[in-house]
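Hello again, I could really use a second opinion on something today. I've been staring at a protein lately and its backbone has me curious. Please have a think about how the structure follows from the sequence. I owe you a coffee for this, so here goes:
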Amino acid sequence: MDKILRLTKPWDYLIIIGVIMASFLPYLLFDTNKNENNRESKDVIAVVKIDGEVVDKFNLSQVSESLEKTYYPQKGKYNIIEVAPGKIRVKEDNSPDQIAVRTGWISRPGEMSICLPHKLIVEILGIEENPLIY
């Protein structure tokens, strides 16, 4: 340990601190940018897809009361979707693992609830005034 301390110079510490600080720079840039984009978002759209095909869209920003809708992706299979103001969830399905049901409410752009056995995806999309590609 003494040998290592003798070999380090004061500038070495400065370089190490600079590298550590620079490593947080991408986090600060992209996190700030993400928050600005979310503030610009006017509408939050929930898209329901079955087997990759869009079957329904809900504007969660304009939903005023809760509603339920049942989808039958295949014979003998069902999914009940519940839509409430600002959020959506898979309330009930007859899949064996119940992952989509246990996911619960989703409300932010980018969140998804997926039921693989039924090939059903509920995805939240944000419509932004100034969309950026990352």
